[in-house]
């Protein structure tokens, strides 16, 4: 029973350590998110600078995951070139050793509880008392998370020491180092934090539960395991994100498989040449050496390696359906492809609307978009919007006829209004969830009523897109629908301001309903404008400019 208890204490220590890391990440993102992003943008224009920037920011943020996920966004948007992104990841690996050095030098050399528990207590109480949106709250959260690292480490250290006294673990040191490499990969892939894996190994090494070479193999496995999160994050992203994530995985995998066969020479170098006799410090020195060797090995080949990655994932069947098949120079075909792509874009927005309001969606076999979560659908729509805009910009270099230029202008206006609608729907969705889950009958009834209105509106718009009738018929239908929602919005506001409607609701709840109503009708209006630009010729589309607005 005692041994079982120690195992659970180890798991509790890992959980507390991970919670501390998570709090550190969240606090630092709030305290210095934008400055770090600007720092990265400024210092990633050259590969050497990118390595330094990756190391500095990761050391300060205490998380390579934040930096690498930030990096994916920069590469995906074209702000950072892939080769520089890979260089920054090499530097980020160096930055992760900062946590290991703190744990090794403070966590095992001092009485952890003497400073971790007071900091935990004071910071935790301040977090309860302070405003959650203040910097002081985030600062308290930072110290609370930092102290939790050592509380969790203390759990791991004492549990491993107790286990060593009860169990002879020396026989495990005879197993092949490749097994320990695999253990490091699996543990880190599961807990998604290489720092926690290394802290656990340091605790085992301090308690003499494991020898240095198996511990080194686990650290190499952790270097590979930490790349799994990035692979998963990029799986449904654009090709550039997949390429960077694959590059990070390959670099870590290659260096780990290479060095796992040189553990004895590296042990000799650390002990005899560098003179590091302390096993705990020797492991951290090894981790640092691994990442320095990785930089030396890969830096000369970043350009060809980047070209190799650029040839991967070149096609993405879930992105544009039509425009990626046509060269912008082929004006007539490009116009037809743009027309079809815009129609497809608006259909996806309708599907997104149906999903967030739990309406019956159409089953589109073979299209991964319809299997995505609402958040993933919105991100996909944003990426598709960017792809269409890029295609439109390329078209501007052609010598277009006036009629072609006018048609392209209407289509890009349709796409722009469609994106406005998607953004308004996303904003309305957060309020919709609050209303749907409310115990207040009036709030829930309002959600159900708005859901029925949305179903009617989306069905009507969907029929117009599917039927594609004559221009005049479409114009009349859209104008009638436009006037209908103007009237509906006005009547809804009057209804909301009546005393009977807002009884038993506080000021925040009333504001939520009014904002929700506004975003919903803004989405309706934007969708109508998007559909009219897609379906109507320039003359008929221009008639909408004389119609009154309704958002006040």
Automatic annotation (TrEMBL):
Keywords: Cell membrane, Membrane, Transmembrane, Transmembrane helix. It is a multi-pass membrane protein. The chain crosses the membrane at residues 6-24, 50-80, 86-108, 115-130, 136-156, 177-203, 215-232, 244-268, 280-302. GO terms for biological process: sodium-dependent phosphate transport. One of its GO terms (molecular function) is sodium:phosphate symporter activity. Pfam families: Na_Pi_cotrans. One of its GO terms (cellular component) is plasma membrane. InterPro entries: Na/Pi_transpt. Its main location: membrane. It is found in: Cell membrane. PANTHER family: SODIUM-DEPENDENT PHOSPHATE TRANSPORT PROTEIN 2B, SOLUTE CARRIER FAMILY 34 SODIUM PHOSPHATE , MEMBER 2-RELATED. This is Na/Pi cotransporter family protein.
């Amino acid at each position: 029973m005692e041994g079982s208890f120690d195992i659970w204490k180890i798991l509790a220590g890992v959980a507390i350590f991970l919670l501390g890391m998570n709090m550190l990440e969240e606090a630092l993102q709030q305290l210095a998110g934008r400055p770090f992003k600007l720092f990265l943008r400024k210092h990633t224009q050259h590969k050497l600078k990118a390595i330094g920037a990756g190391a500095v920011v990761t050391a300060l943020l205490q998380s390579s995951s934040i930096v690498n996920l930030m990096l994916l966004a920069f590469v995906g948007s074209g702000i950072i070139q892939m080769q520089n992104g890979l260089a920054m990841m090499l530097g980020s690996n160096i930055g992760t050793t900062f946590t290991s050095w703190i744990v090794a030098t403070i966590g095992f050399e001092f009485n952890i509880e003497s400073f971790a528990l007071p900091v935990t207590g004071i910071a935790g109480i301040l977090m309860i008392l302070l405003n959650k949106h203040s910097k002081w709250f985030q600062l308290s959260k930072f110290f609370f998370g930092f102290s939790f690292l050592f509380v969790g480490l203390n759990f791991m250290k004492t549990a491993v020491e107790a286990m060593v006294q009860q169990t002879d673990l020396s026989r495990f040191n005879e197993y092949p180092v490749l097994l320990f490499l695999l253990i490091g990969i699996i543990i880190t892939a599961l807990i998604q934090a290489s720092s926690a894996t290394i802290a656990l190994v340091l605790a085992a090494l301090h308690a003499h539960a494991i020898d240095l070479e198996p511990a080194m193999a686990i650290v190499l496995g952790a270097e590979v395991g930490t790349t799994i999160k990035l692979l998963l994050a990029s799986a449904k992203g654009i090709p550039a994100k997949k390429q960077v994530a694959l590059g990070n995985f390959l670099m870590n995998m290659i260096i780990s498989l290479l060095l796992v066969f040189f553990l004895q020479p590296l042990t000799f170098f650390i002990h005899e040449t560098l003179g590091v006799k302390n096993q705990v410090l020797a492991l951290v020195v090894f981790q640092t050496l691994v990442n320095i060797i990785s930089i030396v090995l890969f830096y000369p080949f970043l350009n060809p390696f980047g070209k190799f990655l650029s040839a991967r994932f070149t096609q993405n069947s879930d992105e544009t359906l039509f425009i990626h098949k046509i060269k912008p120079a082929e004006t007539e075909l490009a116009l037809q492809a743009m027309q079809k792509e815009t129609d497809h874009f608006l259909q996806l927005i309708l599907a997104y609307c149906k999903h967030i309001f739990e309406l019956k969606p159409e089953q589109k076999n073979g299209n991964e978009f319809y299997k995505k979560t609402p958040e993933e659908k919105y991100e996909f729509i944003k990426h598709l919007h960017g792809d269409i805009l890029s295609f439109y910009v390329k078209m501007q270099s052609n010598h277009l006829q006036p009629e072609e230029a006018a048609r392209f202008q209407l289509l890009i206006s349709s796409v722009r209004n469609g994106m406005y609608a998607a953004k308004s729907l996303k904003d309305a969705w957060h309020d919709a969830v609050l209303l749907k889950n409310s115990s207040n009958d009036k709030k829930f009834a309002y959600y159900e009523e708005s859901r029925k209105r949305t179903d009617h509106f989306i069905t009507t718009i969907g029929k117009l897109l599917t039927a594609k009738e004559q221009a005049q018929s479409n114009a009349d239908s859209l104008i009638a629908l436009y006037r209908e929602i103007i009237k509906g919005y006005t009547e809804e506001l009057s209804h909301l301001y009546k005393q009977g409607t807002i009884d038993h609701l506080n000021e925040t709840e009333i504001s939520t309903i009014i904002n929700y109503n506004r975003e919903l009708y803004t989405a309706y209006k934007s969708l109508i404008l998007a559909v009219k630009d897609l379906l109507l010729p320039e003359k008929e589309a221009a008639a909408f400019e004389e119609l009154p607005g309704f958002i006040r």
